[in-house]
Amino acid sequence: MKSVISPMKMASGLTEFWSPRVIAELDDSYVKVAKLKGTLAWHDHENEDELFLILKGELTMEYQNRQVRLKQGDLHVVPKGTLHNPIADKECLVMLIERKSTLHTGDVQTEKTRDISEQLRVLEPQHSETEKDMK
Ligand code: NI
């Protein structure tokens, strides 16, 4: 992997919603980007916290007894063992930091669930038109 990475450019290169992609790794964790719209699924991660950094747009993290509203630049950690469900009314780009053992939707399997091999597929960053023209 490259030594300098732009999470925003990587996230902008995403074509699928709810399909996180690994952009870096450190020790026992992965850094991922994802493009979100709509809702994922209620789930929890029994042994792992899950960090969300909002790169673009807004995200609501729904919990059983409250909602956390996140906007661009906000960082939020979903505590381990806590049922949660992310909701994006409009398209939203996020960066995630998760342990390598973290399953996308915990013990829940849905058609949106992506396993780690899918998350490790190579992602091409988006290049602006000007960058293309300069090549
Ligand atoms: Ni989660």
Describe the structure.
The chain is mostly beta strands and 135 residues long. The chain has a single domain (7-101), classed as Jelly Rolls (Sandwich), CATH 2.60.120. Helix content is 12%, strand content 41%. The protein is built from three helices and seven strands, in the order H-E-E-E-E-E-E-E-H-H. It has helices at 7-12, 116-119, 129-134, and strands spanning 21-26, 29-39, 50-56, 58-63, 67-71, 75-78, 84-99. Strands 1, 2, 3, 4, 5, 6 and 7 form a seven-stranded antiparallel β-sheet that branches. The longest helix is centred in the first third of the chain and has 6 residues, at 7-12. The protein is globular and about 40 Å long. The structure holds nickel (II) ion. Nickel (II) ion binds next to loops.
What structural keywords apply?
135 residues; mainly beta; Jelly Rolls; 7-stranded antiparallel beta sheet; 12% helix; globular; binds nickel (II) ion
Brief sketch in words of this structure:
The chain is built from three helices and seven strands, in the order αβββββββαα. The protein is mainly β. Strands 1, 2, 3, 4, 5, 6 and 7 form a seven-stranded antiparallel beta sheet that branches.
